[in-house]
């Protein structure tokens, strides 16, 4: 019974890509920024090979020999640096056209249609930090009922509303309306519901965020696995990112700890196929808020839980740990950064110390997973299975 557990450490990039200048991200290195914190410690990832990855070994403080896992570095072939684009590419869908951005806010044409459909006015309408948006516009929102609509450097249409003014289910319906409107030239990668609570001066976002993504324009690794009778289990916001396409079963999470708990629960269950997990706190709570120490602590926590996950792997199970983009908390920017991502692999089939070097696309992950199940899928990417597996598995 073969199983693959694919965990995305959301935004844990490992250094600028050659085209980082085009995105304003020269010098970004999320992992290096966190490793400089006194709260950073990842000995278990180090033993698997984290410090030996291309571009990391040059600066990483601990790079011993005798690694127990396989490792490598992946470049992004898609245009962009957002969550949806990164995850789609991991699953074998390379986006050659970037999703639209709105650095000056959304056009009046779109907002007029949105206001007409929802029956509510709008506030803000420009790139804004989510926590700053509710701080600066929350009181007016509560007084008028107008929705706080904002974007960022990513392709997103975000709607914030106080739960006492707009009940969460109504906010979700509003965002479904926005998703219907945000197509074509307005086709952002995600519409995001951002509920919050509290009083003026102490507003805080709740855990009932919900993402409404574009439907992937073609089949991904997930669809191919389902079509071949394999299970596809999604943990965290994976189901949202793929708009449910290619997902057999999903479960939402309240944060990284809950995501690890739910992944461990799936590891204790018999199935053949893929468990795909996103751990979002690195990006949402720390990268976007330029919190280096908080980010470092979150990485340390994952590393502390890693032996538990490794102990639950069966003889034919593979654990893959990667990322979808960067979000360097040490730079002036609070946005994603165009970075390489790491890939760490462990499990019975994995050849200890195997180094796949630098790959051209995240899609090689999807191609390799399909190859492991003996499936030819027609997705982008090239399999590196022969480089990482012990001979008797092939």
Describe this structure in words.
It is a single chain. The chain is an alpha/beta fold. It folds into two domains: 3-96 and 214-393, Alkaline Phosphatase, subunit A, CATH 3.40.720; 108-208, Phosphopentomutase (Alpha-Beta Plaits, 2-Layer Sandwich), CATH 3.30.70.1250. The chain has 13 helices and 14 strands. It has helices at residues 30-35, 43-48, 83-90, 108-118, 130-144, 168-181, 221-227, 238-241, 256-267, 281-287, 292-311, 363-372, 385-388; strands spanning 3-9, 70-74, 122-127, 147-151, 156-162, 190-197, 204-205, 210-213, 231-235, 249-251, 273-279, 317-322, 341-346, 355-359. The strands form two sheets. It has an eight-stranded mixed beta sheet. Strands 3, 4, 5, 6, 7 and 8 form a six-stranded mixed beta sheet that branches. The longest helix has 20 residues, at 292-311. The model has no long low-confidence stretch (mean pLDDT 96).
List the topology elements:
Layout lengths: L2 E7 L20 H6 L7 H6 L21 E5 L8 H8 L17 H11 L3 E6 L2 H15 L2 E5 L4 E7 L5 H14 L8 E8 L6 E2 L4 E4 L7 H7 L3 E5 L2 H4 L7 E3 L4 H12 L5 E7 L1 H7 L4 H20 L5 E6 L18 E6 L8 E5 L3 H10 L12 H4 L6
Parallel strand pairs: 1-11, 1-12, 2-14, 3-4, 5-6, 9-10, 9-11
Antiparallel strand pairs: 2-13, 4-5, 6-7, 6-8, 12-13
In short:
With 394 residues, the protein is of the alpha/beta class. It has 13 helices and 14 strands.
Question: What descriptive keywords fit this protein?
Answer:
alpha/beta, 6-stranded mixed sheet, 13 helices, 8-stranded mixed sheet, 2 domains, Alpha-Beta Plaits, 14 strands, Alkaline Phosphatase, subunit A, 394 residues
């Amino acid at each position: 019974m073969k199983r693959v557990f694919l965990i995305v450490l959301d935004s844990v990039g490992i250094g600028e890509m050659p085209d980082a200048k085009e995105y304003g991200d020269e010098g970004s290195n999320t992992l290096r920024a966190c490793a400089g914190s006194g709260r950073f410690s990842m000995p278990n990832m180090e033993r698997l090979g984290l410090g030996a990855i291309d571009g990391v070994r040059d600066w990483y403080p601990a790079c011993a020999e005798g690694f127990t896992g396989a490792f490598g570095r992946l470049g992004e072939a898609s245009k962009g640096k957002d969550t949806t684009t990164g995850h789609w590419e991991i699953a074998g869908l390379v986006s050659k056209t970037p999703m639209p951005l709105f650095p000056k806010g959304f056009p009046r044409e779109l907002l007029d249609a949105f206001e007409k459909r929802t029956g509510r006015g709008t506030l803000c309408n420009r790139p804004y930090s989510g926590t700053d948006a509710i701080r600066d516009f929350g009181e007016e929102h509560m007084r008028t009922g107008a929705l706080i609509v904002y974007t960022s450097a990513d392709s997103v249409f975000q709607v914030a509303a106080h739960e006492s003014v707009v009940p969460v289910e109504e906010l979700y319906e509003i965002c479904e309306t926005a998703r219907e409107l945000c197509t074509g030239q307005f086709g952002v990668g995600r519409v995001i519901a951002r509920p919050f609570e509290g009083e003026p001066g102490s507003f805080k976002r709740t855990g009932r965020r919900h993402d409404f993504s574009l439907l992937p324009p073609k089949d991904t690794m997930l669809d191919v696995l389902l079509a071949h009778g394999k299970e596809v289990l999604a943990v965290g916001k994976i189901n949202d990112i793929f708009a449910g396409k290619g997902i057999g079963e999903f479960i939402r999470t309240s944060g990284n700890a809950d995501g690890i708990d739910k992944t461990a629960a799936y590891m204790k269950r018999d199935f053949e196929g893929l468990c795909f997990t996103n751990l979002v706190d690195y990006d949402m709570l720390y990268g976007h808020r330029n919190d280096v120490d908080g980010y470092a602590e979150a990485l340390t926590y994952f590393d502390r839980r890693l032996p538990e996950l490794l102990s639950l792997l069966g003889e034919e199970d593979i654990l893959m740990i990667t990322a979808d983009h960067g979000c360097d908390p040490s730079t002036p920017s609070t946005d994603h950064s165009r970075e390489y991502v790491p890939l760490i692999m462990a499990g019975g089939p994995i050849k200890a110390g195997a180094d796949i070097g630098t790959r051209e696309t995240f899609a090689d992950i999807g191609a390799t997973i399909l190859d492991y199940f003996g499936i030819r899928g027609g997705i982008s990417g090239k399999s590196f299975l022969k480089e990482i597996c012990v001979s008797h598995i092939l």
